[in-house]
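Re: weekly structure request thread

Next one in the queue (117 aa):
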Amino acid sequence: MVPLFWRKIKYRYDVVGSYCEKCGSYYYPKRELCPKCRRKGKLRDERFPDEGRVLSYTIVNGKIIAMIGLNNGARTLAEVCAEKVEIGTRVKKVFRRYGEDGDEGIIYYGTKFVPVC
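Done, posted below.
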């Protein structure tokens, strides 16, 4: 079943990435192999911080898409739900609707970010 499959993907509804125990690097999205250590690395799943800062951004079809540096040093690309942001704006993750498949299709959700007040 498609809905059940999507719900079981950990990183779909939370910020779950990888941490390499050998070199101490964080990666998001989750990796199966450490880009630095290759096969010698030992990766484990890790829930990433809920907050970070906007490092860079652009506007695509009226939506703000930002490169966000999470508090642990990992980076992710995500939509920021705000009318305006600036480089350095503190943001936190939120659970928001992404869209749906057709007018009566399955609604899917995921992680976006909003400015920290």
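The mean pLDDT is 86. The domain at 49-117 is CATH 2.40.50 (OB fold (Dihydrolipoamide Acetyltransferase, E2P)).
Next request, please.
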